[in-house]
Design a protein that fits this description.
heterodimer; A: 279 residues; alpha/beta; Rossmann fold; five-stranded parallel sheet; two-stranded antiparallel sheet; 7 strands; 38% helix; 11% strand; globular; B: 315 residues; 2 domains; six-stranded parallel sheet; five-stranded mixed sheet; 13 strands
């Protein structure tokens, strides 16, 4: 379906910047309160998800199950706190519910759980499966002749070491699923260290192009850059935006510091205060 | 009924596909997925009739399973077809986390089970799936004994929300139920009544148990009961207890590992409800090998002779 791009004005960008700042505060509080979680890899994809959910995606705030909506699959399921924080801004969750993250008897599971909250379009947490789900949704939409939805998938960079990602990439390219828009949160780190030292995923762009995808690069912390990338695709192939990001973005002592891949005991209330003071 | 007569044999994969085609004519939400296994699973017939509802993904079962999950979120009813091994083992994480956990409406029809796969060899002889699948919440696991059950199970799968797995064997099997038999999910079926001993079996082992039953009558003067446990999840325990009320012991027979399989399942039920001696026939901590099913069942002590001698030893 040909769409008229949603324009991105400076005032809209200012709003998204403010939303992002609040999201960062919320996810830090959630993870610190939970005693564990992944602050570094959540902070790196804040702008991507704020842009999608507050601006780019066609969704109805009051009707989260609207059938023609764009879908979002957090294949990188450990970015759930970002998603939950944005949900509270969209009034899909109460702000007070956020501190239930990872706790007993709450909806805010560590990884997004389909059906627990009506606006989670797929269960994730076991890495590597989300892109396949989007392929299934794309094929189903084609078969049902529903042309409106786009399928946004957020992948982690370490995640694409999973073989299933390449099975899915091959099938999306083979079936020419033009409505799949994948955003790779390329923060260059994974749990055990730098991605290039754990298992090199480069040359990234060439790999996806060879799977019959169209690829654009963007600054994953710039709304304008993300918007430009999305609106510069020219073909009907499935689309990948390589979003260059910084792990731990926004908090000086967490940026590019893989000690903050996981929060844990070192994430005390004092450390939280220090982090919040930087926002 | 004499089991020496030649009975008409039915290929359960064929029965499944024919039934699925009939259902698909009435329900446009039914779609068929395969991983370079159309011929082996016999869904090529479906693909010829419904080109736009047949999806192939190459040799990539993990991808196929998660794709089926994605399709189901749009209201489709995907039937995933594959060699059982490559769903139960290779794509197990996807079955558990992409399908069972969110309780998505995806169906699996899996072929090539146990030593019945014969010459295909160990890598294709799935002998652990019952142990695996019955421990995963939300999954309904079914093994039809004949074409009469298969037809009803396919209809049940298409009309019942949630993940359902149907085991479709390789070797053709005779009908053991009458045409008016009504299969009910969770209910064991009494194939033949008897006394003293109950043989509880599944799949191709039920027919072999029937033949053993005849020999027991000839040698020892009584007929044991033969019970078919085609639902391997959510079993109606009271029903099974009632069927076995008057027996001295039970023999379970399965073309599968006895560890966590039918033997394990029946032992769990009886140890909790009515402790009773249970002797398990099946694979005991070993892989199979190439050969015909008959050769393999003999070597691995799973044929009619073993059933008879097991009963004899425990009388």
């Amino acid at each position: 379906m040909n769409r008229i791009p949603k324009l991105l004005s400076q005032s809209l960008i200012d709003n998204l910047v403010n939303y992002s700042k609040e999201v960062r505060k919320d996810i830090l509080k959630m993870i610190q309160n939970a005693g564990s979680g992944n602050p570094g890899s959540a902070l790196s994809c804040v702008e991507v998800l704020v842009w999608l959910l507050h601006h780019e995606m066609h969704i109805k705030i009051n009707d989260p199950r609207w059938n023609l909506r764009d879908r979002l699959i957090l294949s990188k399921g450990h970015a759930a706190p970002v998603f939950y924080a944005i949900c509270s801004q969209l009034d899909w969750l109460k702000k007070s519910e956020l501190l239930g993250f990872r706790r007993f008897n709450t909806k805010l599971q560590t990884h997004p759980e389909y059906n627990t909250l009506p606006f989670i379009d797929y269960t994730s947490g076991s890495l590597g499966q989300g892109l396949s789900a989007a392929v299934g949704m794309g094929l189903a939409a084609n078969y049902l002749k529903i042309t409106e939805p786009r399928f946004f998938v957020l992948l982690g960079d370490g995640e694409i070491q999973e073989g299933q990602i390449w099975e899915a990439a091959m099938s999306a390219g083979s079936y020419n699923l033009s409505n799949i828009i994948t955003i790779l949160d390329y923060n260059k780190f994974q749990q055990d260290g730098k991605t290039e030292s754990i298992m090199n995923i480069e040359p990234l762009t060439d790999k996806w192009i060879s799977f019959n995808w169209e690829v654009k690069e963007a600054d994953g912390h710039s709304f304008q850059s993300l918007w430009n990338a999305l609106n510069s695709f020219e073909t009907s192939k499935p689309k990948l935006i390589v979003a260059n990001t910084i792990k731990g973005k926004g908090i000086s002592f967490m940026e590019n510091n893989n000690d903050w891949h996981v929060g844990g005991k070192k994430f005390t209330e004092q450390v939280l205060d220090k982090a919040l003071s930087e926002l | 009924m004499s089991y020496e007569v030649i009975l008409e044999l039915f290929n359960l994969r064929q029965v499944y596909v024919d039934e699925l085609i009939e259902l698909a004519k009435q329900n446009s939400r039914i779609v068929c997925l395969d991983s370079d296994s159309k011929e082996a699973t016999m869904v090529d017939k479906f693909a010829r009739l419904f080109k736009d509802r047949s999806f192939s993904f190459g040799i990539a079962e993990q991808n196929m399973v998660s794709i089926a999950g994605g399709m189901s979120t749009f209201g489709l009813i995907p039937f995933v077809n594959s060699y059982g091994m490559f769903i139960a083992m290779r794509a197990l994480d996807q079955v558990r986390n992409s399908i069972a956990y969110p309780n998505l409406n995806v169906k699996f029809v899996l072929s090539h089970h146990g030593l019945d796969s014969g010459p295909d060899g160990v890598t294709h002889q799935l002998t652990e799936d019952i142990s695996i699948f019955r421990s995963i919440p939300n999954i309904k696991l079914l093994q039809p004994v004949d074409s009469i059950e298969m037809k009803q199970m396919v209809k049940f799968a298409a009309n019942t929300e949630g993940p359902i797995i149907i085991k479709a064997g390789k070797s053709p099997v005779p009908n053991l139920h009458s045409l008016d038999y009504e299969w009910k999910y969770g209910c064991p079926s009494l194939i033949e009544d008897g006394e003293k001993v109950a043989i509880i079996a599944i799949g191709p082992m039920v027919y072999r148990s029937m033949k053993a039953r005849e020999t027991v009558k000839e040698k020892f003067g009584f007929y044991p009961k033969v019970i078919n446990l085609s639902s391997l999840t959510d079993i109606q325990v009271s029903n099974l207890l009632e069927l076995t009320e008057d027996v001295r012991f039970i023999v379970t027979v399965e073309d599968h590992s006895i560890y966590g399989g039918l033997g394990g399942l029946v032992s769990e039920i009886f140890s909790e409800n009515r402790p009773l001696k249970i002797i398990r026939i099946g694979l005991k901590g070993t892989f199979g090998e190439c050969g015909s099913p008959d050769e393999l069942y003999q070597k691995y002590n799973m044929n009619e002779k073993t059933i008879v001698s097991t009963i004899e030893q425990n009388l």
